[in-house]
Amino acid sequence: MRISSRVYLVGSRIGLSDEYDCHIYLLDGGREKALIDAGMGRSPEAVLDVIRSHGFSPSQISLILITHAHADHAGGAAALSEATGAVVAASDYEAELMERGTEEELGLLQAKRAGVFPEDYRFRHCKVGLRLTDGQEIEVGDLKVTALVTPGHTPGSTCYYVELPEGPAIFTGDTVFYEGVPGLLNLDQSDPRELRRSIRRLAELPVEGFYPGHGMFMVRRGWSQLQLAAKKLEGLFFPRLQGQWQ
Description:
Elements: E1 7-11, E2 24-28, E3 33-36, H1 44-53, E4 61-65, H2 71-74, H3 77-84, E5 87-91, H4 92-100, H5 108-113, E6 130-132, E7 137-140, E8 143-149, E9 158-164, E10 167-173, E11 176-177, E12 181-182, H6 192-202, E13 209-212, H7 223-232
Parallel strand pairs: 3-4, 4-5, 5-6, 10-13
Antiparallel strand pairs: 1-2, 2-3, 7-8, 8-9, 9-10, 11-12
């Protein structure tokens, strides 16, 4: 599904790939492409089929940029990396979990107990070839992507900022969703203070494209969602948190 001039949705629970997958975006940098997040890993071939349907070869994908290590975002990184030859990139904290994290450290044990993920699912650990720092710039063909480490949803959650022909865009993973919903979970690794700081930082960006890991996205006026989230977090009580999964 082509969303904008350089952004495609190539995996998602909306019927593009596995029912547990987050949104998997393809960023078209011309001679090179990147995936942003990798889904659960239960149906990597479905993702590859969507990529091919747009006339792209999986071998053109040079990077898989992971927003955080939760299974619905990172569980498919190993399979997609093998299929494409792409280097997997993530912040240092999330990379450690992707390479050797336990189910409890990954938040997977609690997610299974809550019925969010199937009991028989097993996270496939993956080598992370590029460990990202805050503000690091990554070239994807003729595009320049900036990694913004935005702790809160998880300690190493990372958003990806990129200048596109129609204006700057942000890929937020589970840090913030449509309608300004903040991505706070009832897990020890999810920190409301850090999330508040991260969303305030994002709210200063004049982005047009707003591409979260679940739910609705926007190709124009994406800044409005970031500013709305920051405003909601100024209140005494936390706003509604589950909108992206309802």
